């Protein structure tokens, strides 16, 4: 009985060793699989963040402001574009927020189409989609102020990308035309 028991113990040890190896391989594959999944998600989030960051709209050039009969700002025109590396922007989903120093009123403008600057609708030169590298002239009408020596802000809030916020100050002698910020 002594010789046969020794061989059986070796077989048991081999089975246990193989079981440990199989369990280790399964566990290792699970860890690698979750690592690949995490790396893929990280890449996806990074690419998405890059697209959003590079899709910002920006204001370019001079802003022109015009006074109404009551010596308050009546309408504003400015040029804005989409970065060359960005994503197309749907202007029908763009919101422009205008505030000024006279009464602190916040005006929210939505897309009014080409030439559609009426009430709380902003107008643009062309259609509703701006592609990377495109620039358009935007018009805000009926802004309601401020008077000369005041300030106003324009904030572009696109559907994708960061907001652009700029403050402009009017001189004491402002009579309409280009505004420096």
Report what the structure shows.
By secondary structure, this protein is of the alpha+beta class. The chain has 1 helix and 11 strands. It has one helix at residues 2-54, and strands at residues 57-67, 73-82, 89-90, 95-100, 106-114, 121-124, 129-130, 135-141, 151-157, 164-169, 177-179. It has a 9-stranded mixed sheet, with no helix packed on it. It is rod-shaped and about 105 Å long. The model has no long low-confidence stretch (mean pLDDT 83).
Q: Numbering strands along the chain, what is their spatial order in the largest sheet?
A: 10-9-4-5-6-8-2-1-11
Computed Rg: 32 Å
Query: Which spans of ≥5 residues are poorly predicted at pLDDT below 50?
Result: none
Number of strands: 11
What is the overall shape? rod-shaped
Mean pLDDT: 83
Q: Helical element count?
A: 1
- Run of helices and strands: HEEEEEEEEEEE
What's the story with the biggest beta sheet?
9 strands, mixed
Amino-to-carboxy terminus distance: 100 Å
Quick gist of this model?
With about 180 residues, the protein is an alpha+beta fold. It contains 1 helix and 11 strands, in the order αβββββββββββ.
Any chance you could write out the topology, listing elements then pairs?
Elements (H helix, E strand, L loop, with lengths): L1 H53 L2 E11 L5 E10 L6 E2 L4 E6 L5 E9 L6 E4 L4 E2 L4 E7 L9 E7 L6 E6 L7 E3 L2
Question: Keywords, please?
Answer:
9-stranded mixed sheet; alpha+beta; about 35% strand; about 180 residues
